[in-house]
Amino acid sequence: MSGLIGKKIGMTSIYSADGKNVACTVIHAGPCVVTQVKTKDSDGYSSLQLAFDEKKEKRTTSALKGHFAKAKTTPKRKVAEFRDFATEHNLGDVLDVSLFVEGDFVDVIGTSKGKGFQGVVKRHGFGGVGKQTHGQHDRQRAPGSIGASSFPSRVLKGMRMAGRMGGDRVKLQNLKVVKIVPEQNLLLISGAVPGAKGSYVLIEK
Amino acid sequence: MDLVKFAEEKLIEHKKYPDFKAGDTITVHYRIIEGNKERIQQFQGTVLQRKGAGLRQTFTVRKISNGVGVERIFPLYSPKIDKIELDKRGVVRRARIYYLRKTVGKKSRIEEEVES
Fold first, then answer.
1. What separation in angstroms does the CA of A6 have from each of A103, B62, B67, B109?
2. Torsion-angle region of residue B9: left (phi > 0), alpha (psi -120 to 50) or beta?
3. Domain residues of chain A, as ranges?
4. Where does the pLDDT of residue B1 fall: very low under 50, low under 70, confident under 90, or very high at 90 and above?
5. Do A86 and A187 meet the contact criterion of CB atoms below 8 Å apart?
6. Which DSSP letter does residue B35 get?
7. Coil, strand or helix: which one is B64?
8. Best interface-test mutation with B: which of A15, A18, A22, A27 has the largest number of B CBs within 10 A?
9. Of B13, B18, B5, which is closest to residue B87 (Cα–Cα)?
10. Cα B8–B12–B13 angle (5° rounding)?
11. In the CATH scheme, what is the code of domain A3-114+169-204?
């Protein structure tokens, strides 16, 4: 695996070679600094720790300052680990979008937008109970029965009900890299990507 | 948003289209692919509006075909547009001339701009 940390910038649409309009997400990916190299001998597994996006020195804890100083870099906002990196890198190396080629398929991990407290129709795709006619009311978005009566006399664990929705870690697989703009480290990935504008995403290949 | 603009700027293929606006009469030469044959279709009409910005800009062209009003929306930077010809410059007082849809007969004429 190889990958980068990026920031979702927004969406636009571009034209493919055959004139089709392709909706895509613009991601500011990298440059990321290698802040730690974990190997099988030292940590029991091999991985690369990457850091992305500048942060003020005075807002960094001393522990993190030391960690970034080891890699001879400035403090960074977002740190993430990538298991079994495809290429070998040393502490302090800088990775950018040249990792990817146009036409690659990548996985994008982000934190979905928070939706607040939602009912079962939106949260779990229930159909609701009942109709609008035949004397019914108040039941159109209701969850229906949540279990039997005296047996088991309780609601089974994991019963899908209303509650907080969104804000989860979501991974979208096999998204196509449509265009790369190396001047500003921009990736244009076809389709939508989880999260709000300005949120961090991990791009894995 | 700046970076989106930057990416769009990078990807726009700047073609030499005449500078047209609402009220102008234009002919759009549009590539149509049928099976593996390609031909060019012309669509002549009045520009109703230009909409959007950057790479996503579109324009609407309206014409009367066999007594029926036909409107087509073209993406400005679509590679399928072969060329755009400016036939007439019209004088209109607004950027979006939707009122044209409700006009009949003499009302639906647009005054031509006189070159000074």
1. 18, 43, 54, 54
2. alpha
3. 3-114+169-204, 115-123+142-166
4. low
5. no
6. T
7. strand
8. A15
9. B18
10. 170
11. 2.40.30.10
One pLDDT digit (tens) per residue for chain A, 205 residues? 888 999 999 888 888 888 888 999 999 987 899 999 988 998 899 998 999 988 898 999 999 999 989 888 899 999 999 988 888 888 888 888 888 888 889 999 999 999 999 999 999 999 988 888 888 888 889 999 999 999 999 999 999 999 999 999 999 999 999 988 888 888 899 999 999 999 999 999 8
Determine contact, residues A52/A62, Cβ cutoff 8 Å: no
Q: What is the pTM of this model?
A: 0.82
Which residues in chain B have their CB less than 8 angstroms from residue A196's CB? none
DSSP state for residue B90 in the 8-state scheme = B
Question: For residue A81, which amino acid is it?
Answer: E
At A203 the pLDDT is: 93
The pLDDT tens digits for A21-57 are: 899 999 998 789 999 998 899 889 999 899 998 889 8
Placement of tokens 């392709």 in the chain: A22
**CA–CA separation, A55 and B30 (whole Å):** 50
Task: Inspect the interface and report whether the beta carbons of A28 and B78 lie closer than 8 Å.
Answer: no
Interfacial residues of B (vs A; Cβ cutoff 8 Å): 1, 3-4, 6-8, 10-11, 31, 33, 54-56, 75, 77-80
Which ipTM was obtained for this model? 0.75
Of the partner residues B4, B31, B33, the one whose CB lies closest to the CB of residue A12? B4
Residue B97 in tokens: 């001339």
Flag if A184 and B7 touch (Cβ within 8 Å).
Answer: yes
Q: Record the tokens describing residue B5, joined without a space.
A: 């603009």
For residue range B20-44, what is the model confidence (pLDDT) as tens digits?
999 999 999 998 888 888 899 999 9
